[in-house]
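Problem 12. The chain below contains 281 residues. Write out its predicted structure in token notation.
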Amino acid sequence: MTVPPKDADARRAIAPVIVYPNDSLAAPDLALYTAALATAERVHRVMAPPRDACTFHVPAGSFFRITSVEGPQVGDLNLWNAQDLNERFFSGKTRALHGTHLTKGERMWSSLPYLRPMATIVEDSLDWYGVDAFGGSVHDVIGTRCDPYTGKLLQGTQYHHCCHSNLTRALARHLGVSVQAAEPHVHDVLNVFMCTGFTRDTGQYFMKASPVRPGDHLTFFAEIDLLGALSACPGGDCSSEHSSDVAVCYPLQVDVLTPAEGSLGAWQSPEPNGYDRSHGV
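Solution.
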């Protein structure tokens, strides 16, 4: 290791600066969304089977709820603009704006050049968990999704029921295209119910047994027309491993809920980002 300079401690002691202060972000009207949710009725239900994925459509101004059923299970969530798959969930910018884990009142933002809210979390039954003694928390935007390429790289395996492959198959079925055509649209996820963090000594991404139990749920308000895909991770509750047929796995339930007409008042779907895209030219 390089010999530390004389002012090493002074350099380390410099206070951090938040890169993207979010106090200028328009806050979602949670009171409005909560009141509308109280009037909502279920219009569709779909299940993500263990070690597989499902797709679902949510019109702008409706809600969708992901619920743990049967046993503790984590899921990997992808979102797209239902009319344009080029606009999709941007986990990196969401992480930069809100932090490593999401909860009630925070949003899933879309990719450049659109960069607008796609969905707002209005209910989180695991918000009590907070940050544990290991630095772990729930619903992360730091893990990319388990995938067969990393499995091949690290273990030399050919495993086809990791979340990347599950999402690819589900999207291919929905679009009526080959998995090769669907795969480029699959992207970094919101890890629903997953408990994760970074080790304090090496800074490595870790997972631990999820605190989720049957009945726990995460409810979102669709800010734009959404196509969603949810994978029930082959790691089950991710207490030991995440890409194998060994872990006990359970399904995840997705409900789409439509609020009563007029319950959202004058709410309007957000427009794409207003940057003029001239890039200085």
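Discussion. The first strand starts at residue 41 and ends at 48. Students who got a different answer should revisit the alignment rule from Section 12.3.
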